[in-house]
Automatic annotation (TrEMBL):
It holds the Pfam family Rost. InterPro entries: Rost (IPR049352). Keywords: Membrane, Transmembrane, Transmembrane helix. This is Rolling stone. One of its GO terms (cellular component) is membrane. The chain crosses the membrane at residues 38-59, 79-100, 146-166, 172-196, 203-224, 252-273. The keyword Transmembrane applies.
Amino acid sequence: MEALRSEFRWQKFGFGGVSVKAFVSPQFLWSQHQSLFIAFRVLVAVYQLAWNITVPIIWGHPSFYRRAVDNQAKWLIYLSNWSFCVLTLYLVTAAVSLVAHRRQTQRQVADVNELVIGPLENGAILNNQPQLEENTPLPWYFKLTWLLQNIAYSACAFVTAGYWLVEFQPGFTIVQIFTIHVHGISLIIALADLIVAAPPIRLLHFVYPYSYFLLYQLFALIYYKSGGTNPYGGTHIYKSFIDWENAPTTSLIILLLGTVAAAPCLHGLLFALDKLRNKVAEKCCAT
């Protein structure tokens, strides 16, 4: 209970008080092999980026969809695709930040060893790296990574649940590999990242996915008021979610539920999973 109470402090809204080690080292047994973690980060980021480039290009193509879209740019009016892009941005930012920080730290350690005790073998230099990381304030790029992580996790969970529970229509909706990636595999990637990566989930960070969902709802309302249409000429974006023309009350309820209820609840679930992951790591995989 003390750990839970400690989450409700003003500083917990921010991105301080965490060691750099949480962003450069993974959980579990391969924490002593950072090269594996770097490879994981880079490969997942490249994979997600490749799909994020492919999906908008293929989207609406007659070979894969029943109806052609009137404008490829309208791919960006959907929350699903916003969230897919946010996940990509997070994974790429995490990978680039990790690689850049690793190179910078290696140079700093080499410079310190050169100055203090003269040239050393590479292995000896790298052995001093953890001490330097423990004493380094969290750089801005890891804070950005942390912010994007909070948004991406909740967004992927919301999009996947919303699509398969509400939007999907058996017998009518054509499920393509692209659909599965945006509304399923993205969540699997997010959960895998949650298991492997070490940055903590703070309860009060729910304000960031909360703001993200609110921003999208405001965009959808402004888009409708400006005369925007979906790719098939209709006024709704999601017929079951957002239809300000024909179902304004439902859209308002979804707006309130999506921001007031869904964002905190999903983030709370991720917080619980984060704590469970830590317990498993402590009991089963401590080195």
